[in-house]
C-alpha cells in the first residue's frame, strides 16, 4: 500500500516545481482533455502517453539541458525521470486528478508518479520515463507496468511514499546541475527515511 506524506489538497496544489497554473501546462491539459473521452481515467491515460512519448528522456537523446519545473519540461521537451514525473503530475493536477511523486532505489534514485482516480481507494503508480529497447512501461491500473522492477537481492527498493512535492535531495540535484553530465554526479543514491514496499511489489 502506498502512503501519502501530506494532506489530500496538497496532491492537487501548484507550486514552483509542479506549476500547473502556468499557461503552457493549462493549454496542454486542455488539448489532452479535448482529445480524450470525458472521464478522469481517459484524461490520465492521455496525459501519461503524452509525457512518456513526446518528452524524450535526456539519457536517450544526450540532450545536455537539465529541466526540473513542469512548464520547462513541456516547453523544452526534454528531461530525466524526475523532470518527466514533475510534468505528468502537473498535467494530472491541472485535470483535477490527484497525483504525487514516487521513487525507487535502482543504483541511483529513479522517479515515477502515483495517481488516484475517482472511485478507487488506492494510489496507482505509473512510470513516464519513456520506452526504448528493453523498457516497455505502460499505463495500467490492474498491474504495474513500470520501466523497471526493483530487485531486493541487489539492494534495490520500491518506496511506498507518495510525495506531494519533490524531496530536497532530488530538487537539489536538478537545480545544482550545470548540464546532464554534471547531473549524473549529483543524483541521490538513496532517500533517507523512505519506507519500502513489502516485497518490493
What features would you describe in this structure?
This protein has 201 residues and is α+β, with helices and mostly antiparallel strands. The chain has one domain (3-200): C8orf32 fold, CATH 3.10.620. The chain has seven helices and six strands, in the order βαααααβββββαα. The longest helix has 15 residues, at 40-54. It is globular, with a radius of gyration of 15 Å. The mean pLDDT is 94. This is Transglutaminase family protein. Residues 27-105 form the Transglutaminase-like domain.
Briefly characterize the structure.
The protein has helices spanning 23-34, 40-54, 58-61, 70-76, 81-94, 168-176, 180-186, and strands at residues 3-4, 99-106, 108-115, 124-126, 157-158, 161-162.
> Given this structure, which CATH class is correct?
Alpha Beta
Largest sheet: 4 strands, antiparallel
Low-pLDDT stretches = none
**DSSP, total strands:** 6
Mean pLDDT level: 94
Query: What percent of residues are in strands?
Result: 5-15%
* Global outline: globular
* Estimated helix fraction: 25-40%
Domain Transglutaminase-like: 27-105
Protein name: Transglutaminase family protein
Pfam families: Transglut_core
Descriptive key words:
6 strands, two-stranded parallel sheet
Topology overview:
Layout: E1 3-4, H1 23-34, H2 40-54, H3 58-61, H4 70-76, H5 81-94, E2 99-106, E3 108-115, E4 124-126, E5 157-158, E6 161-162, H6 168-176, H7 180-186
Parallel strand pairs: 1-6
Antiparallel strand pairs: 2-3, 2-5, 3-4
Helix pairs in contact: 1-4, 1-5, 2-5, 4-5
